[in-house]
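2024-03-11 09:14:02 INFO worker-7 job=invfold-0412 stage=load source=structure_tokens
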């Protein structure tokens, strides 16, 4: 398990960017410090792209998301020889005031690459920015935290391709005796509760856009 090898999976009490609490944290920002691991992760992404996306959809650009998703997107871009662009979290108020950096043409097919997905809210925002210029239909991540991401993306006509689900990661670690039984129980209960909360969200249609209520984070 590459993530375990570089210490990218931590257990405890963490605050996510959504301000929600989580009993575990995945930090793919460590991957660039381990070139062989980053390269192998890139290979796994490429396999998914070649097997699940390219046979049915031509990719003109790969879009990365700072910070954790950008190094992975860069590696995937190089391996596939597909030009890279990236989305800014916030629009610059200086220079050219861009929200998308790099060369992109009108109606380009853009593959969105990130490190992981939770509820998918930030991914949807990034796709909306990219759709001002091109077409975005597919998103590739390493880990699906199983907190409603695929369902929320599907409401926005985005198809998620994840390399692994977080419950499979936990099961693997349990089989290795790499986490205590109590920790395994805690994180699995957390995922289950998150799935149930996501399933209870009411889908609200507004014009051509669909969001969930309460708003995912």
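2024-03-11 09:14:09 INFO worker-7 stage=emit residues=217
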């Amino acid at each position: 398990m590459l993530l375990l090898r570089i210490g990218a999976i931590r257990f405890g009490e963490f605050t996510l960017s959504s301000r929600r609490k989580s009993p575990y944290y995945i930090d793919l920002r460590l991957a660039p410090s381990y070139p062989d691991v980053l390269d192998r992760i890139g290979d796994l992404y490429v396999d998914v792209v070649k097997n699940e996306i390219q046979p049915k959809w031509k990719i003109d650009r790969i879009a990365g998301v700072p910070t954790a998703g950008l190094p992975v997107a860069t590696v995937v871009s190089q391996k596939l020889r597909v030009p890279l662009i990236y989305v800014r979290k916030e629009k610059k108020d200086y220079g050219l005031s861009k929200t998308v950096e790099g060369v992109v043409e009108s109606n380009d097919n853009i593959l969105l690459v990130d490190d992981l997905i939770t509820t998918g809210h930030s991914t949807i925002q990034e796709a909306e920015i990219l759709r001002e210029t091109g077409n975005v239909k597919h998103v590739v991540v390493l880990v699906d935290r199983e907190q409603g991401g695929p369902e929320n993306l599907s409401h926005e006509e985005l198809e998620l391709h994840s390399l692994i689900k977080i419950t499979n990661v936990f099961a693997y670690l349990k089989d290795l005796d790499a986490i205590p039984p109590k920790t395994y129980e805690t994180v699995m209960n957390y995922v289950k509760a998150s799935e149930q909360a996501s399933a209870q969200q009411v889908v609200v249609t507004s014009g051509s856009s669909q969001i969930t209520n309460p708003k995912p984070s």
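2024-03-11 09:14:09 INFO worker-7 stage=report msg="The two ends are 28 Å apart (CA to CA)."
2024-03-11 09:14:10 INFO worker-7 job finished
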